Amino acid sequence: MIERYHCCATCKHFRIDVQDDGDRRIYCERLGFDTKPTYQFNCWDPKDQVIKAMKQEEESE
């Protein structure tokens, strides 16, 4: 089940900042690297709402 949720977009450290020129920077606040929502890293720390969704899905199985 974790594989289904494991991606940068669901991590606590995932950020999107809009620059002054209108461009967006998508990055990991913890690592400082630019990233994409679908990337996966071993340091993944899911957001609270993702943890809740995984628990609900696990209970319904």
Describe this structure in words.
This protein has 61 residues and is of the alpha+beta class. It has two helices and two strands; from the N terminus they run αββα. Strands 1-2 form a two-stranded antiparallel sheet. The longest helix is centred in the C-terminal third of the chain and has 13 residues, at 48-60.
Short characterization:
The protein has 61 residues and is an alpha+beta fold. Helices cover 28% and strands 16% of the residues.
Q: What low-confidence regions span 5 or more consecutive residues with pLDDT below 50?
A: none
**Helix content range of the residues, please?**
25-40%
Order of helices and strands: HEEH
Overall structural class, as computed from helix and strand content, comes to alpha+beta
Radius of gyration: 13 Å
Total E-strand runs:
2
- Could you give the order of strands across the largest sheet? 1-2
General shape: elongated
User: Can you give the mean pLDDT?
Assistant: 93
What is the terminal separation in angstroms?
Answer: 11 Å
